Amino acid sequence: MNDLTIRRDRLVAIGFVLATGVLACRREERRFDDSSAASSALAAVTQDTLQPGVPRPHVTVVSRSEGNAFDISEGKRLFDQWNCSGCHSHGGGNMGPPLMDDEWIYGSAPENIVATIVEGRPNGMPSFRGRIQPQQLWQLAAYVRSLAGLQSKAPSSGRDDHMQVKVDESRTPIRTPRASASRNTPAKSEKP
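Given the sequence above, the corresponding structure tokens read:
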């Protein structure tokens, strides 16, 4: 009798551990056809408070790519595919500004990054309006934020970085972005 009770208790304990493990394991969602429009991000982002007509209410845009390892990995692939590294040199800056520092001229929020990609910016950043799918815009924004350490460390990219010349995104320290004092601020390389 005692031996049966011990076996039963072991089976109950093993069953409890397995059930807890299955319930606690939450697989991230991979969206292959996302209908979230980039236009909602563009409508929410303004560079100036001056606007014609009745003021628009503030719209909060939530990016579903934030904190999603699959989307960050896809953003990394798209960053190279769209040759963003040609100007931004894998986030360290080259002709384009560095994406690994804490200085953001046009804002570090995902909707600001999407607006920058779609609209382009003066002095070099081309507009990608109509060329990149909305879901891919959010994936690129999530990856760019991971370069600067603005993402949580939990969703690290699944891509192998041993051949890269830069530090893995999941190893960059978390930083608080700061706005540039002026758009005419010289680049870090030009500062004395």
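The two ends are 84 Å apart (CA to CA). Try to locate this feature in the token string yourself.
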